[in-house]
Amino acid sequence: MSSHDRRSPKGREVQRTFDKVIDHYDRMNRLMTVGRHAAWCRDVAASAGVPPGGSLLDIATGTGVIALAALERYPDSAVFAVDFSERMLAEAANKPGASAITWQHADANDLPFDDESFDAVTHGYLLRNVDDVERVLEEQHRVLKPAGRVVILETCRPRGLLRYPVSLGVRVVIPLLGQMVARDRESYAYLQRSTLGFMTPQEVVAILRRVGFVSIAWKKRFFGTHMIISARKRWPS
Questions:
Q1: What is the DSSP letter of 159?
Q2: What residue ranges in 69-166 does DSSP mark as E strands?
Q3: Phi/psi of residue 4, each to 5°?
Q4: Is 161 exposed, middle or buried (0-12, 13-18, 19+ CB in 10 A)?
Q5: CA proximity to 26, closest of 17, 13, 35
Q6: DSSP 3-state assignment of 224?
Q7: Residue 233 CB neighbours (<10 A)
Q8: Are 95 and 101 in contact (CB under 8 A)?
Q9: Which of 17, 37, 59, 171 is a Cys-bridge partner for 29, taking CB atoms 3.0 to 4.6 Å apart?
Q10: C-alpha dist (Å) from residue 24 to 18, 63, 95, 132, 207
């Protein structure tokens, strides 16, 4: 069982948060990213590079935006999508086209799949919500086939000249939107803290290298508050 299932303090907080925000989740993602969230998810899917007839696993799928984008881009592939929130999975499974995806309750710390099962693994906003980033990435490395790709969408702390104004904007805007749209300032205050408190791209890259990934690349989005990182599992030597 995972740290979430064992009810770690962070796991309890994350589970409560995402179960509470489900009714406004997609709308808030659009508002908080000024409409860019869906495009980033399509970018993640495109970067996965699933071969014809291949397979993709989307972890922490939430309402399934990346999984559905992957199915649209690779219609002959097998797409699996997992999340530890059953309410999120139910919402995702009701979307148009969702019946072609295998939705499954699972934990990122202990994936219920065999070694070398997938050609690609994707996830959005997973790593900032887990207790042990390295363990979670090790699991992804395990289920990937040799030369398979992992593509990560995450938040990160803004740097440089825009660091302070952007950080101030995030601290003010996200909880305010949560109060105005979802009537839930508390949950979005957590999302604001996790947005500004997560690792830099360089820190994530260092963990990916330790786990055994190669060909690592990253790019920032949205004033440096988001990043997309891709990496490949090496062929056995």
A1: -
A2: 78-83, 102-105, 118-124, 144-155
A3: -65, -50
A4: exposed
A5: 35
A6: coil
A7: 23
A8: no
A9: 37
A10: 10, 11, 15, 28, 33
